[in-house]
Hints:
- By secondary structure, the chain is an all-alpha fold.
- It has one domain (2-69, 96-192).
- The chain contains ten helices and no strands.
Amino acid sequence: MLFVKFFALGAAIGAATGIPIGPVNVAVIESAYHHNLRRAIAVGLGGGLADFIYSFLGVTGVGPFIREHESLQYVLYFVSGIVLIAYGAITLRTQPSDISESTVPRTRQPSKVITGFFVGMALILLNPAAIITWVVIVGSLLADAGAGAMEGTATAIGIGVGSFGWFTFVAFMADKGKRVLGERIVTVVRLIAFALIAYGVFLVGRAAYYAYGQL
């Protein structure tokens, strides 16, 4: 019963933390628009699995270590900022496809689906500040609840499932939205890309400010 309770808690947290626009959300929307729904769902699956990995590490392994080494947090912020800036820039440079072509059913291309899965994983795993989120949010929550290893594992599994559930929802909405919005969805993706770049600059600036303060 406790396993189910903490799994449900993790699923709710995983879905909620996926709502703020991040690189996986952008990749899901872009994949639905430039490729197809299967590719977009594969990106979400990769992102959900990576969220599970980081949340599992955060609640059962590296959490205490990160709390004890404040400087490590800012190194992770710096790396994550660079990743967000780079991905945002790549997204801005991507040439939009013809909407009439993107709505035509395409032959199945397993390689694109597999590539999408690894893109989703990489966007989380290369964003190491994500693990801080799980340490701060989930780690402290579980500590207050007196949860043990089993409850922490159940929560991490729930987070992965909830995260994948949210990304799948975004994939379906984006696939439907490209037919409604047409070429205007390109503007939406680019605005989100600018937001990612801005947040990346903020993280790099935050890390630099901390490093300056230590001099």
